[in-house]
Task: structure prediction
Amino acid sequence: MPGNTEPKSAEPVIADANRAVRQRFAFDDTQDLEDARRGFMGTASDNLIRSPDGSTVWDLGAYGFLDQDCPDTANPSLWRQSRLAADHGLFEVVEGIYQVRGFDLSNMTLVEGERGVFVIDPLLCAETAAAALALYRAHRGDRPVTGVLYTHSHADHFGGVRGVVPDGEAARSLPVLAPEGFLDHAVSENVYAGTAMNRRATYMYGAALPKGERGQIGTGLGQTISTGAVGLIPPTVHIARTGQTETIDGIRMVFQLTPGTEAPAELNIHFPDHAALCMAENATHNLHNLLTLRGAQVRDPRNWARYLTESIGLFVDGSDVAFASHHWPVWGRERVLSYLSEQRDLYAYLHDQTLRMLNQGLTAPEVAEVIKMPPALERAWHTHGYYGSVNHNAKAVYQRYLGWFDGNPARLWQHPPVEAARRYVEFMGGADEVLGRARQCYADGDFRWVVQVVDHVLFTDPDNAQARELQADALEQLGYGSENGTWRNFFLTGALELRKGPVGTPTSTVAADLLSALTLEQLFDSLAVRVNGPRSWETEIAIRWNLKAAAPITLQLRNGVLTQVTGVSPAAADPDVEIALDEAALRAVLVGAITPDELAERAGVEVTGDLGKLTELLGFLTDPDPDFAIVTP
Result:
């Protein structure tokens, strides 16, 4: 490890580039500042939100340093955005609609009804959600929660529901609204690839970085993610079509379904009695991700733009304010129209121009390097790439249509990173020669090339202290210059791990509530992706689960593939063991809460055949690694 592990100053080329940003954009435009602070009613007296064990899950005061002038170690545009997003407290949107902002990555919206308050998007964890509800009640009275709505299937919009909904009979009778398909996407995204996504989210949100001018200053969409208890209460009311209306506690709502936009299952909401429009996460004060850096399915900017056009046609004439599940509202009908129109044009332009250029033969990196946004869009602060970037979104559009391969056969069967790195370094004259040339590039301010070439040295020799130090320094400079919050966090977290070692994965969304919400089919699928295929190539096992009041399910391992077959079918192999049980017992053994031997001893469980086959099958499952290497092999 290098001797100096602390962040360094901005190099002159980065400091100059950041100063140039101030001359390029209208920093004297204060409209966003006025909007972000409009309707402020107060905030919590205690900055720290704690878990039951006393650990801090959110610190409201952590971003106080943003009140100072932007230093050379941050892009002034990102600093401005982070300062706006850091404002925390209870805000009135219009009479009867309130938001708690700055208590988590997302906003909680509260709509007052005839008997209580209807909660929209209860943040990421129970602790921050409970604190947000307490702040609302301190200013608006101790109103009961009369309903909950999840606008879409990302955890920062449902994970805190246990903090606003009490246990017991009241919770069981409470209406919980969500778009059709919500539950399937909410649990599958956070379980199937959840470990890898959470590890990469550590980089994306800068969860392990110190807060400060040389560390984490935000993500562009909000500040960061909280670290408390994630939960889920399944929806009881499904929004299945655009135009569907629901009235909860006297609150009239008209819905627009927007599947495949920012989330696979998402909706917008119009409140006709308040002349207010909730845009969920489909229109926020930044360019959003078409492919989030933590990993997800590629989103469809063509449909995203079309749904925004539909939103304008359906709701703008009846809306005096538009607000979302992140950032601050926009007031005034003409401003709402302009805002939504520019957001629409943003995604449409990215889609259409990427398609135009790929049809001219440009590859994804080439499109990303040359695509420029129209001047009118670039002048609008809310279209800047603070969270998604033009660069990686253009690559996402390319991937959506053409995949990873650019058509050049020279790139069809390339060596994996370690093998390629070893060959590159050898061709370039060895590690010392590469590092010598890279140091000159660093001095010249060519940090992009430094990280690209030194990466080969690291993947050849991850313990090379000089390579680690130079790579960390170059990544740090790229972070200091980035307007995109998630890029900054990726660069700086990479530097942190190179200097100090693995930081782990502070937050996981693979929570008990999400596992319990999996269907049995999804639960079996989550096991199938953990099977060690090569180890089980020569093994054939069949387990038949005879469920009470349900068709039998045969789980069979063959050719390294775990398959499930429901009912009596030629596709179902003859079982090695049959187990009669209820669904609760089946779930317990599949998630590892009990062993096969403990299962056999449970009341009501009957085993016929060789129970050892179940133990053998479970032995082929591998555990995900939440701390896998990213910047080293």
About this structure: The chain has a mean pLDDT of 95.
